[in-house]
Amino acid sequence: MSLVIDRLGINSEADDISTQILTLTMSTLYVTQDDAFIGRIDERLHVKYEKKTILDVPLLKIDGVVVLGRATISPSAINELLERQIPLTFLTGTGGYLGRLEPEVTKNIFVRKAQWQAAGDTPQAIHLVQGFVRGKLKNYRNTLVRRQRESNDLDLSGAIEHLDHVIAPIDATQNIDSLRGLEGAGSAAYFGCFNEMIRNTQFTFPKRVRRPPTDPVNSLLSFGYSLLRHDVQSAVNIVGFDPYLGYLHCDRYGRPSLALDLMEEFRPLVVDALVLSTLNKQLLKVEDFVTEPLSGAVSLTNEPRKTFLRLYGQKKLSEFKHPVLGRKCTYQEAFELQARLLAKYLMGEIEKYPPLVLK
After folding, report:
1. Residue 15: pLDDT band by 50, 70, 90 thresholds?
2. How far is it, in rounded angstroms, from Cα 220 to Cα 218?
3. Are 329 and 125 in contact (CB under 8 A)?
4. pTM of the prediction?
């Protein structure tokens, strides 16, 4: 038997198999083992597998639960999560989004009213789409510049120049569809040289492939974006937005468009950076991935998946100086900070929405 202790000071008696069952990164609990049982005892959440208690954690120290694969959760645990405003997200074992259970939206009707008033081709919507696209593409560009500076044998100047040309007309572009076109062109330039930034001969990246991802690199990107969606949607809900009404992403039944909008500037900063770091430090191997015979979908096996979840949790908690607020914060805090800046813009409290751009 071994003692499992994480940074929250949570203790649990567990045998070796427990390392494949769940990961707790500060305040998000990830349950990855099929047939695990999530229950509640008093003020604590506990996870069992084969009648053994694997984790026992105070509910006060959890702000989100993510279930990957097939696990069972008790009605008592669900009730407690709802009462405590703790979202519960369900993903497939490969990281595909299934659904989300969360309490009713906050009572701040004024934020949602401002959000709805800005919908469509309004000046506010155009300004926000400009910001989302500019933030994402500038972070793409800064990623390429940084990688080129770190590697003398890497020439990404063509893609950097292409991104410069795409970024230049953003502020003068007043049509949302045209801005979407610029976003697509910039993303194509960035992912067109993504393979060159992978300094690990075990892995290659031919092109961006989704639904399903058919190679390990795309698998990590898609998995990371699913985790990021959970975190950003939680921030959007905390601030009081309707997550389904966005500006850059078109309205579609069941799609949290605003959460996807706000995700854009974080994709290169959090997920892409994590994937490149994980591969270039050789923290994962090709043998850590499995291919589903029928669909061709590629995904991580159990233990490597736990490794990636831990690395994602560490990335969320890494600090940087926020360029607008002028103080240090973590990416986890930045998700909510950016959502609050978005609310301040829509409420007329600030003149512009400042996307998070880091050099």
Report:
1. very low
2. 5
3. no
4. 0.80
